[in-house]
Amino acid sequence: MNVTYPAASFRQNATKPPASDPLLTVQNLNVSFGPAHSRRAVVKGVSFRVEEGRCVAIVGESGSGKSVTARTLVGLTGARSHVQADRLTFQGKNIDRLGDREWRALRGKRIGFVLQDALVSLDPLRPVGKEIGEALSVHRAIRTRADLTERVVELLNLVGVPEPAVKARQLPHELSGGQRQRALIATAIALDPALLIADEPTTALDVTIQAQILDLLSETRQRGKAMILISHNLAVVSQMADEVIVMRHGEIVEHGSSEQIFGDPRHDYTRGLLKAIPSVRSRGSRLSSSTAPRFISAEGETRALTQSNMAQRCSPLLEAERLVKRFRGPDGKLRTVVNDVSFRLGHGETLGIVGESGSGKTTVARMALALERPDQGEVTLEGSPWTAATEKERRQRRSDISVIYQDPLSSFDPRWTIERVIDDALARRSGNPLDRASRQSEVSELLDLVGLSPNFRTGRPLELSGGQRQRVAIARAIAPRPKIIVCDEPVAALDVSIQAQILDLLGDLKSHLRVSYLFISHDLGVVHHLSDRVLVMHHGVAVEAGGADDVFLRPWQPYTRKLVAAVPQLHFQAA
Amino acid sequence: MNAVKTIGHQSLWLARRLLSGLIVVWAAATFTFFVQFLMPGERAQIIFNANSGNVGEIPRDQLLAINAKYGFDQPVFVQYGKYVRDVMHGDLGQSYVQYQPVTDLIARQIGPTIALAFAAMLTAWIITITTTVLFAGRNNIWSKALGGFQVFLATLPPYWLATILLVVFAIQLRLFPVVGGNTLMGLVLPTMALALEIYGFLGQAVLSGFTRVLDQPFITSSRMRGTGDLSLRLRHALRHAALPGITLSGWIIGKLLSGAVLIEAVFGRQGLGGVLVAASSTRDVPVVSGVILVSAALFVAASLIVDLTIQLVDPRMKEA
Fold first, then answer.
1. A87-90 and A24-33: which strand pairing?
2. Residue B176 confidence class, pLDDT cut points 50, 70, 90
3. A268-275 and A496-513 helices, crossing angle to 10°
4. Do A414 and A475 fall within a single domain?
5. Is the ipTM of this complex over 0.85?
6. Looking at beta carbons, which residues of chain A come within 8 Å of B211?
7. Contact criterion met (CB < 8 Å) for B224 and A108
């Protein structure tokens, strides 16, 4: 059934319909939420079709309506939603306005759905085998208990889970992240549905696991099943999709073949999305369309000058000497989380630390912040003891080193105004304390520096978007005038275009304030884009270190090579 | 091999829990022992009054005789040592008033109280599960009314509710006996009086947990497999929502033991409540101490059962 049509016929309003009825037709789909008087349109006039055996990708930022569109196809948009479409057919049958029973007959059996992050998408209290078995028994596909168990083990084996009979009886948290995601995919393909919808199937996964899961999804496709792949990761999409739909604010802005979208994007928004991906090629250039902010603080300029002088005089700024950290696991055994890790961070330099989850990179960050005392080795700050000092001695110098986390919301007091959040950090600035009035003007300056208008002063963290929150977190981090900022996955929770803006901001601030970054991320592209030097961590050991280009373009350690190879590349280069 | 390790881990945990439970009971025993010295009046005087049936100054020879008989003339720590030794041998002493071992007294009355507490707990859980599964998280008026109704029940004083139930169902409608004794029918109204109040708290905890769980991705995931609403609620959501309720149940057991005192009084039931009230008013110290000690032991046992139940429902807790 894998018929190839000329690229033009996949676009919207294709003049010539394909010979046979497509598997899925969506015409002028509108979805809105809320009561009649204040209805919020989330999907506006979306039309597309999915042919048998083909993969259609929907990309867009969060809030673009891509997930809602997908959920419409299984009738799960929620109780407060209004779905309206000129045409909504699947396998030649109208699926608009189905009853609950009819929807249930469709779900799982004809349309399989994989949600992101199996850790929360599998019931944490039920063995994974039961979850897979549920997909089979709900549709009465299997009669006896013995057959069910056998089929579940078969399915786990099919998706590549080792020791399937053992894993079937274990709870989700006892499986690794990759195994969990495989098990979740097994629940979706248990009944061999004609269409598989995968909503961000690899978002929460490490890059090597992501590559394995993408391989698994490709295998499923090769068995002739159609797929709708939803992702904000364009590189993932370019590997898998035959067609790409780009959505923004509930509308389709561009729709075409993979070749066309990635090779010759027509719409500005698509071009912006492609340009926003940090990678080796983006080094030294801006990712977002924003221009560099004008920095108004004259004081900052002079400071930058004096610091650059200092950089020549004394180095390094932060030095870690053979750090070792062990933690006691739940079984009472000691686990070495960080093993003999050393690094130096010079003035105005960015050191990137990459590694998969559990590699010990966050523990290294916590020791750099002296929040955790190493079991062996020590961290020195400007040549004097840092982790070995007492907390009382450290307090004086705490303002020299700040931190930005992945999720700023949990590091803000939700009842505080933005002004108070930043003011609190200003008060901790060492040297001569600022009076109230100058602190107030400083808050405005800092907000300006991170690209927020002074109107945000009175806002509260919950009212801000993810990108705005991260800007406030950055303002708070630079408020005490640190020499070093530790960034622990600062863009991991952000959309690609917001991520681009934040990375640009961090780059601007670096050259302006002459701060050094200890930049931690699992995303090799992000680290490569921003870092001067890179440290690769694996199971607590620093396996490779060196200049960013050397490590990523000419890796010599097998693990680094595997890591670099697993990163999905854009298959078509934007012109 | 893994299983062996888990069992070892489990039994170590159990041993630690039993030890800490023992310490709680010992602390309760010690506390009640020393509190009796803070109470006004000579113990010999109390015993003399109970024996003679009148209130008067105890003659000197009687005082010495009683003190010698009960060992009150010994130093406090010798008395304490004897008390602890007796308790360890299962001897809670003699009632001053009723001339019989405290253990016999409690053993005779503990049955109805445990039956009442157990029935109330069971009833509260049954109502909780039924109403939650039927109404929670639905977008209708019943779903909203349920939460309000539970708050209303939780704020009602149980003895007042007991009186209302008694007047309506026993006296006016004559459906249940006014004074039930230990018959099954007699158990219904006291059980309801206790259960409805507990349901107010328990229902709230389970309801809010249930509503939260329904929004979890794994519920959506299961829906996307075609699972029906009822089996989703029963197989997935209920188990998660029950956890805070089970935790709360440990606290509720303590509340039940004290609540039973009032309810037993209203319905004229036999039970530990009556024993405690009578003993307190006659200052029958060994009986009061005994009831407190037994309550503490029951409470410890109940929290152990609660923790074991939680581990059964949420196997992840075994590792913690």
1. antiparallel
2. confident
3. 50
4. yes
5. no
6. none
7. yes
Q: Does A391 touch chain B (CB under 8 A)?
A: no
Are A391 and A515 found together in one domain?
yes
Question: Any CB–CB contact under 8 A between B236 and chain A?
Answer: yes
Contact A11, A253 (CB under 8 A): no
Q: Which residues pair with A230 in a beta bridge?
A: A58, A199
Sheet holding A533-538, edge to edge: A401-404, A484-488, A516-521, A350-354, A533-538, A541-547
B92 CB neighbour count, 10 Å cutoff: 23
Residues A493 and A472 in one domain: no
One domain, residues A488 and A382: yes
Q: What is the pLDDT of residue A16?
A: 43
In a domain, A83, yes or no: no
**In chain B, residues 7-36 whose CB comes closer than 8 Å to chain A:** 9
Asked if A370 and A415 sit in the same domain, the reply is no
CATH number at A337 reads 3.40.50.300
Task: Kindly state whether residue A233 falls inside one of the protein's structural domains.
Answer: no
B226 close to A (CB below 8 A) = yes
Count how many domains chain A has.
2
* Shared domain check, A468 and A343: no
In tens, the pLDDT along B248-257 reads 998 888 888 7
* Cβ neighbours of A146 (radius 10 Å): 9
Q: Which of these, B133, B117, B318, lies nearest to B240 by C-alpha position?
A: B133
In this predicted model, what pLDDT tens digit does every residue of A354-401 receive, in sequence order?
988 888 898 999 999 999 999 999 999 988 899 998 888 888 888 899
**Is A310 inside a domain boundary?**
no
Domain architecture of chain B: domains with CATH: 2-88 (no CATH), 102-319 (1.10.3720.10)
Residue A235: per-residue pLDDT:
83
- Chain B residue at shortest CA distance from A185: B221
Residue A126 contacts B, CB cutoff 8 Å: yes
Task: Report how far residue B293's alpha carbon sits from residue B287's, in angstroms, rounded to the nearest whole number.
Answer: 10
Give contacts of A 91-110 with B, CB under 8 A.
Answer: 100, 104-109
Locate A146 and state its tokens: 């013995």
Indicate the residue among A442, A460, A480 that finishes a domain.
A480
B6 vs A104, more confident: A104
Would the CA dihedral through B146, B148, B149, B153 be positive or negative?
positive
What is the model's pLDDT at position B320?
Answer: 55
Contacts of B276 (CB under 8 A, 6+ apart): B261, B287, B288, B291
**Which position has the token pair 């090579």?**
A561
- The model carries a pTM of 0.79
A183 neighbourhood in chain B, CB within 8 Å: none
Q: Do B225 and A134 touch (CB under 8 A)?
A: yes
Domain, as residue range, for A496: 333-399+482-546
* Angstroms from B296 CA to nearest CA on chain A: 31
Residue positions counted in chain B: 320
With a cut of 70, list the residues of chain A below it in pLDDT.
1-20, 290-315, 329-331, 431-432, 571-575
Question: Which of A480, A502, A530 lies at the terminal end of a domain, its last residue?
Answer: A480
What is the rounded distance in angstroms from the CA atom of residue A191 to the CA atom of residue A111?
9
Mutate to test the interface with A, among B224, B232, B311, B314 (most CBs of A within 10 A): B224
* Domain-located, residue A511: yes
Shared domain for A423 and A472, answered yes or no, is: yes
SS3 for A122-134, per residue?
CCCCCCHHHHHHH
Name, in order, each residue with C-beta under 8 angstroms of B263's C-beta and a sequence gap of 6 or more. B116, B158, B159, B162, B190, B193, B194, B269, B273
Residues B205-231 as b/e (b if ≥16 CB within 10 A, e otherwise) read bbbebbbebbebbbbbbbbbbbbeeee
Residues A353 and A490 in one domain: yes
What stretches of A412-483 adopt beta strand conformation (E)? none
